[in-house]
Every structure is written in C-alpha cells, then in structure tokens.
Amino acid sequence: MKYTYKPSGVCSMTIELDISDEGIINEVRFVGGCSGNAQGISALVKGARISDVIDRLKGIRCGHRNTSCPDQLARALEQVAVQKT
User: Fold this and answer.
1) H helices within 1-85, ranges in order?
2) Which family does the record claim for this protein (predicted)?
C-alpha cells in the first residue's frame, strides 16, 4: 500500500512510503531535504518491520530542532500502523 506523509519542522517536503500488507517497508522516498541522508535512511529501512523502524528512529533530533527526517519517518510510520489496524 502506498502512503504520503507531509513532515513538519524539517527540510523534506514529503515522505512517500510503500508498505506491504504484512507491515514490511518496501520503499521510502523523501522529497526535498538532504539527498544523501534521505537515500541512506531509505536504504537502511527497506525490508524492515514498521515497528522496528519506529523504535529505532523516533525521537532523533537534527541540531537544535525537536525533530529530524528520521523522526518524521517514524511519525509517518506510526500513522500507517494506525491505518492498518
């Protein structure tokens, strides 16, 4: 299933997600933001369970900000998890 999330407080404008029916991340694509970091995060979470990624990324901060692109990905996945139940 494909999902789109509008992050806040970060440089990325959109996070596009493709999640399997079993809750496995098939693909993550960040639109905007730091290209290298976004590609790295996307590659690392591919094939992982939603719950594992949320546990690893939630609460990560970027500099003085209270959030980050990894944290926003965790928040997007939390919304996906709620929608899937």
Assistant:
1) 35-45, 50-57, 69-84
2) Belongs to the ribonucleoside diphosphate reductase class-2 family.
* pLDDT tens column, 29-75: 999 999 999 999 999 999 999 999 999 999 999 999 999 999 999 99
Total domains present in the chain = 1
Classify each residue of 7-17 as buried b or exposed e, where b means 16 or more C-beta atoms within 10 Å of its C-beta: beebebeebeb
Instruction: Measure the CA–CA gap between 75 and 40, rounded to whole angstroms.
Output: 18
* End-to-end alpha carbon distance in the chain: 13
Dihedral class, residue 5 (left if φ above 0, else alpha if ψ from -120 to 50, else beta): beta
Q: What is the CATH number of the domain that holds 77?
A: 3.90.1010
The strand order across the sheet containing 2-5 reads 2-5, 14-19, 25-31
